[in-house]
Design a protein that fits this description.
Layout: E1 3-9, H1 13-24, E2 30-32, H2 59-72, E3 76-78, E4 82-86, E5 92-96, E6 101-109, E7 113-115, E8 131-132, H3 135-138, E9 146-150, H4 154-163, E10 169-173, H5 183-191, E11 195-198, E12 201-208, E13 214-221, E14 227-231, E15 234-237, E16 241-243, E17 254-255, E18 258-259, E19 272-274, H6 286-310, H7 312-320
Parallel strand pairs: 1-2, 1-6, 2-3, 6-19, 8-15, 9-10, 9-15, 10-11
Antiparallel strand pairs: 4-5, 5-6, 7-16, 12-13, 13-14, 17-18
Helix pairs in contact: 1-2, 1-6, 4-5, 6-7
């Protein structure tokens, strides 16, 4: 079996940036995409805060540029999904959904995060029948309809504003009496005549109509305890994200589902690095993920140079002696 120099798990901004840097270093990286190429960025309608694009650009277009640049310098793309890793031996082992097994001298983990669910009755059953986690993907299907958006952060308002292009009315439902989103997004949302707000309320159920599609949500006011049904034809949920780290449990040091790293993207296993939202529960920006992907790639390059010179056990011992590596 061929032993890869670098395997990159995940195809978001961090993953493609790691591919760009490691391929420019002539390491011939293999990037395994996962189920969603580009991750959350590919589902974002427009990105206005990534440097170099003053007019903004659609998320899918930015992902295409990331991929094209990484491939230009030699990153190999495998459209597959990693289901299992073994970081207890070296070379490391990576197994995929298609039945492939790879070995690697180093691994960069950039599996990102996925939207959190409400976990209320009707949510799972009506997903795809009016319940959605991606306005960019599904907004077109709600033309001239009344929809609700659950959440109060940047994502909720960004997606809610996008939905006003299609829906006749967008109602934002938030559990508190003020939003967490940035002031500029709040200003845009409050000024949009298609948007309205229900405060101090949570969704306790999503209800189907006669056509087995969403017809209403059950709301509960957290201050008065009053429950009532609010008619709607679409439910868009933006209440945060869950890190995609299940396959690394027992393999890497983790906390609350996030992979722990030091400031240089080293994980608890020497030779395994992590970048992007799988280890970043604070910033969660495209620009920071790109920076972290750069760091991880450069550290992987240094690791491989030392590996060639000293061998894995010696490099491992030196790194584990360092207080910087998470326990």
């Amino acid at each position: 079996m061929t032993v890869e120099n670098v395997i990159i798990i995940g195809s978001g901004p961090a993953g493609f940036t790691a591919g760009l840097y490691t391929s420019r270093a002539q390491l011939k990286p293999l990037l395994i995409t996962g189920n969603e190429i580009g991750g959350q960025v590919a589902l974002t309608y427009e990105i206005e805060n990534y440097p170099g694009f003053p007019e903004g650009l659609p998320g899918p277009e930015l992902v295409e540029k990331f991929q094209a640049q990484a491939e230009r310098f030699g990153t190999r793309i495998e459209y597959d999904y990693v289901t299992e890793v073994d970081f207890q031996q070296h070379p490391f082992v990576v197994r995929t959904q298609s039945g492939q097994e790879y070995q690697a001298k180093s691994v960069i983990v950039s599996t990102g995060a996925t939207p959190r669910k409400l976990q209320v009755p009707g949510e799972a059953e009506l997903t795809g029948r009016g319940v959605s986690y991606c306005a960019t993907c599904d907004g077109f299907f709600f033309r001239d309809k009344n929809v609700v958006v659950i959440g109060g952060g940047d994502s909720a308002l960004e997606e809610g504003l996008f939905l006003t292009r299609f829906a006749s009315k967008v109602t934002v439902i938030h559990r508190r009496d003020e939003l967490r989103a940035s002031k500029i997004l709040q200003k845009r949302a409050f000024a949009n005549e298609k948007m309205q707000f229900i405060w101090d309320s949570v969704v306790t159920g999503i209800n189907a109509g006669d056509n087995d599609a969403v017809a209403s949500v059950t709301l509960k006011n957290v201050k008065t305890e009053e429950e009532y049904e609010f008619p709607t034809e679409g439910v868009f949920i933006f209440i945060g994200h869950k890190p995609n780290g299940e396959i690394f449990e027992g393999q890497l040091a983790m906390k609350y589902g996030y992979v722990l790293t030091d400031r240089n993207m080293h994980t608890s296993v020497p030779g395994v690095f992590a970048a992007g939202e799988i280890q970043d529960n604070h910033f969660r920006q495209v620009a920071t993920s790109v920076g972290q992907g750069t760091q991880a790639a450069m550290e992987a390059e240094r690791f491989l140079a030392e590996l060639e010179d000293k061998g894995y056990e010696k490099v491992k011992a030196e790194l584990l002696d360092s207080e910087a590596v998470p326990a």
